[in-house]
């Protein structure tokens, strides 16, 4: 289980945290001719090798590099505006299936746990990373069906402010849940509602209000579910 958690951490770091928007756009623009596609796959292999921390498992890192390249290349060639959401989910599912397959294969080897961190700690790291950019990007993909025009917002805001607010609030909710401070979750949701929906009332746009409400509930809901799952696994 610990090995699987480490490989998932490496995946989320490589696919979401270390991959910038400009990096992704260059891949999408040049596709198979883009050096960024191959650099991205190599980064995944190096991250996997780093977290495996066992040079004898170089073949596992190589498999991750090759399969990541093939899966991402296929996604780039097949992606259209209509199927971007479904291909994103299929892409992530295939990557995770490869990781699970390697985990089951490597478990037959007596791999020494050289990282002196408990399974509890590694699971906490996985949940924390998942609740930052990965969930943010998943919500962004989900909301492509309700893309707002500039006229729909009517509110000036800081660049990427919503992204950072979302990540921080999900991490806070997660910490509150695993520490048993459920009332703090309600307080945080109330505080956000006071500030956020006060601004929305100025916009006088029902579409924007519904957009933000759905996003807030999904963001909080995912963080709560991850926190409850973490607690159940730690029992």
TrEMBL record:
InterPro entries: Phage_phiKZ_Orf197 (IPR021737). Keywords: Membrane, Transmembrane, Transmembrane helix. The chain crosses the membrane at residues 86-106, 121-143, 171-191, 211-230. The keyword tRNA-binding does not apply. It comes from the Bacteria. Pfam families: DUF3307 (PF11750). Signal peptide: none annotated. This is DUF3307 domain-containing protein.
């Amino acid at each position: 289980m610990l090995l699987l958690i480490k490989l998932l951490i490496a995946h989320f770091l490589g696919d979401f945290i270390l991959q910038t928007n400009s990096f992704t756009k260059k891949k999408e623009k040049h596709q198979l001719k883009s050096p960024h596609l191959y650099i991205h796959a190599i980064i995944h292999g190096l991250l996997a090798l780093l977290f495996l921390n066992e040079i004898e498992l170089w073949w596992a890192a190589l498999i991750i590099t090759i399969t990541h390249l093939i899966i991402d290349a296929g996604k780039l060639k097949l992606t259209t505006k209509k199927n971007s959401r479904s291909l994103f989910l299929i892409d992530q599912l295939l990557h995770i299936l490869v990781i699970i397959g390697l985990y089951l294969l490597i478990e037959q080897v007596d791999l020494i746990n050289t990282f002196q961190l408990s399974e509890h700690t590694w699971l906490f790291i996985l949940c924390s990373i998942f609740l930052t950019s990965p969930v943010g990007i998943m919500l962004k993909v989900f909301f492509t069906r309700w893309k707002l025009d500039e006229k729909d917002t009517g509110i000036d805001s800081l660049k990427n402010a919503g992204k950072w607010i979302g990540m921080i609030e999900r991490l806070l909710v997660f910490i509150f849940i695993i520490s048993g401070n459920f009332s703090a979750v309600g307080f945080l949701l109330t505080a956000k509602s006071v500030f956020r929906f006060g601004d929305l009332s100025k916009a006088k746009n029902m579409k924007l209000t519904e957009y933000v409400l759905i996003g807030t509930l999904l963001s909080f809901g995912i963080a709560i579910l991850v926190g409850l799952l973490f607690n159940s696994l730690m029992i």
